[in-house]
Every structure is written in structure tokens, then in C-alpha cells.
Amino acid sequence: MTARPAPDARCPCLSGSTIGDCCGPVLDGATAAPTAERLMRSRFTAFAVGDEGHLLRSWHPSTRPASLDLDPGVRWYRLDVLRTERGGPFDQEGLVEFVAHHRGPEGAGQQHGESRFRRERGAWLYVDEA
Fold first, then answer.
1. What's the pLDDT tens digit per position in 33-53?
2. Sign, Cα dihedral of 68, 73, 77, 79
3. Coil, strand or helix: which one is 105?
């Protein structure tokens, strides 16, 4: 795990808030993500800081792998949320379309996807890519 930014630093998900007011409490388990988009943002931040524990905890048990092997040579630096479908505080399912930008040994790259989420017992969980 790389060092997490200080609580008053800009959140890696680029929401415009500090990590202490945005993804930090979700990564710490102090608060649940209220929407699918907030869980998506916290998962991006987990990739950015190398928090495999949060990625596994926030993954639906039906699709969660036994372990993760994050590449320390890849730096995730920007998340663009393009759209959301459902995923609000009163929904049970949601979809977030995004572009995640990274830089690695081969240069800059991006991942464009649509992540599906499901809320169970009040907690949003990542299911898979649509």
C-alpha cells in the first residue's frame, strides 16, 4: 500500500473535496458510501493508494476474487465519471460509466468501463463490469 494522502489533501478521485471529506472515511470503514458513484470513487482511490483491503471488502461476494495483486508500477491519477444510472440512496442497483487514467512503464493509458453495483444490507458493493 502506498502512503495515503493527508486528510486535507485533494482526494485522488478528483471529486473536488479533500480525502478526509470524501473517500478517506469510506476506505477506513468509518462510513458507508451513500451511492454507487461514491463507492466507485472510493474504489478508484483505493487503486490510487494501493488499498487492496478496501477493494476486496467492497466487492460483492458472488464475484469477489480470493486475492488481488495490484501492480505497483501503475499509478492511477484521474477518474472521470461519465454517467450514472440509478445507484442513489434509495436504489438497490446502479451503474457507473467511467474513464480511469493511469500511467505505467509503457506510458499513459486509460480504462473505460461500466461498473455494476448492488446494495445489500445498506451497503453498496461492486459486482462487475457491464
1. 999 999 999 999 999 999 999
2. negative
3. coil
Residues with Cβ < 8 Å from 36, sequence gap 6 or more? 84, 86, 87, 88, 91, 94, 95, 96, 115, 117, 119, 124
**Cell numbers at 71, concatenated:** 501492480
Residue 90, C-beta contacts closer than 8 angstroms, at least 6 positions apart: none
Half-sphere exposure of 56 (CA within 13 A, CB side): 10
Task: Give SS3 for 38.
Answer: helix
- pTM (whole model) above 0.85: yes
Give residue for cell 489533501: 9
Assess if CATH 3.40.50.300 describes domain 24-129: no
- For 10, how many CA atoms within 13 A lie in the half-sphere containing its CB? 7
> Residue ranges per domain, the chain?
24-129
| Per-residue pLDDT reduced to its tens digit, 49-88 | 999 999 999 999 999 999 999 999 999 999 999 999 999 9
